[in-house]
Design a protein that fits this description.
This protein is an alpha+beta fold. It is built from two helices and five strands. This is Sporulation protein YtfJ (Spore_YtfJ).
């Protein structure tokens, strides 16, 4: 293992210690002197139903979404957040709906 790889491994261990338990790191991708480490957020859910008719129901769910990537290079560590275009579009639609409802209420009173 080269000195650069040892330094990168040390930085990655330090980053993992600083982040919460709900963060998951992907396989590091190395290109030249730069290493990218993808990061995702994971939420687990579990439910259990009551007994009716002698049967018990339940289920487990997992929700994973990308949150960004760490760039590890000679300059240090940089964070690059993931951009969710769907959230941006959805937020714009909600804002437009609120404005349209406000205009409808304002003009209806006149």
């Amino acid at each position: 293992m080269t000195e650069s790889e040892k330094h990168d491994d040390h930085l990655l261990v330090e980053l993992a210690d600083r982040l919460g338990r709900n963060q998951v790191f992907g396989e590091p991708v190395r290109q030249g002197d730069t290493t990218l480490v993808p990061v995702a957020s994971v939420r687990l859910g579990r439910g259990r139903g009551d007994e009716r008719g002698g049967e018990e129901g339940g289920g487990t769910g997992v929700h994973v979404r990308p949150v960004g990537a760490f760039e590890v290079c000679a300059k240090g560590v940089a964070w690059h957040p993931a951009v969710s275009v769907n959230r941006i579009v959805w937020g714009g639609q909600v804002a437009l709906a609120v404005v349209l409802v406000a205009f409808a209420i304002a003009f209806r009173r006149r």
